[in-house]
Amino acid sequence: MRRALVLLVLVACGGKPSVTPPDGAPDSPPPPDAPTLPVFRNPVDLPDAQLATEALQLLGANVPGARSTCQQCHGMTRQHVRYWRALSDVSMSDCLTDLQVTSKASAQQMIDCARSMPAMNTSDFTTKHLGIYATAANLPWFAYTFYVAYGGQGPAKLVEFQKQVGMPRDQTPFTQGEFDILAEWFARGVPLLDETLPLDPPPETCNTGISAAVGAHVADMAITGWRAVNKANMLAMHGCGEATDPRDCLSDTKLAVEQPFGSGWELPGRGRLRLLADVSYSTSFWTRSSADGRFIAHGVRNVPGSFVYDLQRAMPVPIDVLYDPSFFPDNSGFVFQGGPRNVCAQSVLTSNPAAISMTEVGCARLNSIGLYQHVGRALNGGDFFAVDSEFVSDDGGHNPTFNDPAAHFNSQGYASFTPMIFDGTRYVPRPHVEVATPYEGDAVLSPSAKLLITRVAGPNDRQLGFVLRKVEATLVGNTYQMAAPEVARYCGFSGGKPAFTFDERWVAFHHYVSQTDQDAIELGFTGVGDPGFLPYRQKGAANVYLLEIATGQVMRVTNVKPGQYALFPHFRSDNWMYIQVRDNNAGREYMIASDVALVLP
Questions:
Q1: Which of 131, 206, 275, 556 could pair covalently with 491 via S-S, beta carbons 3.0-4.6 A apart?
Q2: What is the number of other CB atoms lying within 10 angstroms of the CB of residue 538?
Q3: How confident is the model at residue 4, as a pLDDT?
């Protein structure tokens, strides 16, 4: 920490170093039009108390005079600020190590260190490797560093960097003076955090309770929900051919357990696992698929942009976006964030493109849809809906991961709904509406847009369980009046962002194997000290679980090996579950399908 402070002060006070031109010899002078070295940050001479207040106001924390910035996406809890401080300290010690930018090689090293895969200079950038310093992405120091690293190509590469990690997202960037305040506070070690940010204690206990309304909803959806509607509309499902029973679909697809990497994956009575695709690229964040199961979309770490994998053509289609794919339940369109536009008609995919620019005629930019969104559509020709909320990013499994995502959600938690209509060409938004969901985040909308499930925070930002809410939406003029009363709470387990079946009977989620006796015993060991559990303690793993929302029954669906991560389960319209598996043992990823929700009584 002391070393980071010294570096910052040297840059703020030091003179102008000689610059190695990107394509010149080490001692050649800079070209006449070369930019001069700007400061990374200026020291701020404020007492700790005033500095803490101004920094928390900039972050949008729950203090008087706060701006609406980071709170739009992240719960600004004390624990979350400390987490950002840890990331920032590591960034200073491991990445931003030459703030004087003394050479091209040094500039490139600092830039590549901010990538999700630093050894691969084509991989995506990640805010995790920058911490709070991601808020400086639009300031002159980074522009200068990209110039030194790449010369004339620097501006274009800088734009990609800013698009991926620039914070706060989709808002006015911080000025140099504002960043100076933040950087000073984090460099000092966030002094007086506890004294300045009010304690915002989440619930300490969680009691499972399921109202009769949940069972009634499930019974209704079995007849009127999107699974029944799409079946009545004869939506053609991938891999079904002439089959009329969805259990007969994908019968020609290889069983995962017959592959060397998949032996032992299945559990008795929990369905069969089919191998949809085996790929060498590395995905990022979550995976979602179209209602007909043909398209599987995800961010990609080791190439620019993302992929939509077309199972019909057995090929990935590059798409100019970054993350957060979601598909509408009627198979009419999709949302994919981090591109020039974010909402597109399904025709953009079904036209069999070689690549997708997100500037196609069927695409629109809806700024009211925030990151980590999920989508649904009201039945009987009703409006489309997107929901976003406070969220905690989950991209585990690339390295050993031993805990479920934290739950950095505070009393200001909310769910933001964006209703939409389709005008025949593209989606058009109505005014968005916010509903309070204190201490909850990572909100997911059911296909019918009638239910909302969230992860609920507990002490130390640990997840206590899941909360199920009934969405009540009444159209008044061109806007909606909305409420979301709680109808169920499921406790005693945790996991990543869940997904509903199309008949809304089940919810699936993934859970990282933790270093606890509870998880070790569930996997068949005597406890965390059992020698057989040692590979899980070294490599980690994640399995997929299924929750029946009317009964609260939870069951494990997969049994992957240490070093393998079954993640981001979700469903297509006929209730086949798709799962992304990251296999660190083989350096590959697999897309698999499970019929568990079809074979259970």
A1: 206
A2: 10
A3: 37
Which ranges in the chain are annotated with CATH 2.120.10? 209-599
What distances in angstroms separate CA 556 from CA 266, 468, 545, 566, one per listed residue?
A: 10, 20, 4, 11
Residue appearing with tokens 């010369």: 151
Calpha distance 555→477 (Å, rounded): 44
**What pLDDT is recorded for position 23?**
43
Q: Are 593 and 577 within 8 A, CB to CB?
A: yes
- Of the candidates 40, 48, 36, 31, the one whose C-alpha atom is nearest the C-alpha of residue 7 is 40
Q: Could you tell me the two tokens for 253?
A: 């697809």
Q: At what angle do helices 140-150 and 154-165 cross, to 10 degrees?
A: 130
d(CA 524, CA 264): 13
Q: What DSSP character marks residue 95?
A: I
Cis peptide before 47 (omega within 30 of 0): no
d(CA 212, CA 40): 58
Cα-Cα-Cα-Cα dihedral of 295, 300, 306, 309, to 10°?
Answer: -20
| CB proximity list for 596: less than 8 A, separation 6 or greater | 270, 271, 546, 557, 577
CB neighbourhood size of 96 (10 A): 23
Bridging pattern class, strands 363-364 and 374-377: unpaired
Instruction: Report the CATH number of the 209-599 domain.
Output: 2.120.10
Question: Which string of DSSP letters, residue by residue, matches 289-324?
Answer: E-TTS-EEEEEESSSSSEEEEETTTTEEEEES--EE
Sheet holding 283-289, edge to edge: 283-289, 295-300, 306-310, 315-319
Nearest Cα to 387, choosing from 434, 343, 431, 352? 434
- In this predicted structure, what is the pLDDT of residue 18? 38
Report the C-alpha gap between 70 and 167 in whole angstroms: 8
How do the residues of the chain divide into helix, strand and coil, expressed in percent and rounded to 5? 25, 25, 45
The mean pLDDT value of the chain amounts to 90
**324 contact partners, CB below 8 Å, separation of at least 6:** 285, 286, 299, 335, 336, 337, 338, 371, 372, 373
